[in-house]
Amino acid sequence: IACVLSGLPESIIAAACARSGQRVLHVDSKNYYGGNWASFSFSGLLSWIKENQQKTDISDECEDWRKLILENEEVISLSKKDKTIQHVEDFCFGDQDSAEDVEEAGALPKLPVFGAAGAEGVAQESEKESPPTESALPEVESQEPEKATRTEPASAMEGNDTETTSENESSHSTALGESALELGKTEAAPSEISAPEPKKITYSQIVREGRRFNIDLVSKLLYSRGLLIDLLIKSNVSRYAEFKNATRILAFREGKVEQVPCSRADVFNSRQLSMVEKRMLMKFLTFCLDYEQHPDEYQDYEKSTFAQFLRTRKLTASLQHFILHSIAMVSETDCSTLEGLQATKKFLQCLGRYGNTPFLFPLYGQGEIPQCFCRMCAVFGGIYCLRHSVQCLVVDKESGRCKAVVDHFGQRISANYFIVEDSYLSESICTNVCYRQISRAVLITDQSVLNTDSEQQVSILTVPPVDLGKPAVCVIELCSSTMTCMKDTYLVHLTCPSTKTAREDLEPVVQKLFNLNTEKETENEEQEKPRVLWAVYFNMRDSSGVDKNSYDGLPSNVYVCSGPDSALGNDCAVKQAETIFQEMFPTEEFCPAPPNPEDIIYDEDEITPEESGFSNAPDTKPEPSTEESSSGDSSAVK
Predict the structure, then answer these.
(1) What pTM was computed for the model?
(2) In angstroms, what CA-CA distances link 471 with 260, 281, 491, 509, 638?
(3) What total of structural domains would you count in the chain?
């Protein structure tokens, strides 16, 4: 199996193939894992911004590779230029006090103040060059809630020769019946009677603490009963990562941010709802959990939108808003009644498995998840090569199947199956493909959008569109306990399907929720809002939903994976990976759990004295492989 690019679907397929005994080569032209699913430190993100703003063409390192092509073969050239990222604009709103004297790693990038886009003079050591490391495997010891082990993630270790300064804290594990998924939580800040004055954070501080940031290119959460969580548990890949609960669901209504009661306890403890509203809400949510058993209550509205159906349920305007935008999280104009009921049921079914909300977030960022599957692949013999681009696919003219790839060194690599990410396909293959776009923004702010007693909150907020027909904007706010930002700051991700450039789509929402004013004297209303210290906007290609038949001239043994989609969860990537794996190996199980050491049975007649450990000869025990020793997992023995 030859996989090109290490995004989430490709990494899952590679892990599944290696686990089933296949030989896997996984190459990526970039110097980091994850592709558009990756996470970066602050300086790493600035390097990524500069790279995508310049968009330099990659020249062939070897021009003699065509000599390797035989007469009965033809080539399908792959794209040398990544066109999945567009309209990248970054702004610094904070003070740049003597920033030129501060360094995190390499030379300090100089950012323009608000009004001029671009990151100039970025110089950064290559990050994320090594495979996932041992420190990404936290040991669960303590049963104390609200704590997690502060280990350095794989994504933050690459290219970093300095020792990490993270403090060691105890871990938290929850007993969850059918799963052994580790749920990490970092100790929450002490409750305070009044919210403290936010500390003044400067750009030089952000640069100095740049390795405290793990900034995702794609913003997603994991549904606690979603396909990805089930796969992590089934394959035992969950041991390679830690997770934290999303602690609250927020709503934006009448110009204010407020918390949405989701669970039964939240509903009855809510001060926002009257007793009548509480009963209305509980009655409707109970109906949604088994709506299939009561078709007479919704079948007359199957052709109506979910918003129209809610108006017939005698719900108040605030309850309709909460259900539509914060629980079902669906469009007001495009979502049918059945789709809305399904989304509401999925939300409710995920409640209570790991906490009071349906969502989990991986510590150190979403970019850890592809690396976890890459580690599983490596443990079972997969070979990884970063900074290793592929020139073309070699196709046999008679059979029409792909036989090999040629890399940028002019080496010919043979394989039976080829997994390619959509961004590697040239325009000649994608002439009939129509792509969607995702608008993304990442902000660093000085306080939360909704201050409470605890500063350590992971929040999800859906901002409804101002104009009908426009998409809602999903806002995910991460605190420092998620290991994605430095202390006294918040990392805010905004995502929506694109209608224009990312800045045009998302800046109106940013202006509603945050203070962009850099001057000291502002109005009282603006002072109450969190202040944006730094921001980046960009558009990302959404290639999900593209049918394989849309690609012209692809051989039958070449499978195309899509990049990230605009949905909140990861179901699309998991479904795609499983579908491709089953097409290649229909009789194999998809990502089974590795065997435990105590389950491995040896035939006593085949065990020699040396193997049994009773030999007096020195150095009789074989050394573990590099992948096994790096994972520290004895269950990798086959």
Answers:
(1) 0.79
(2) 21, 25, 22, 12, 49
(3) 2
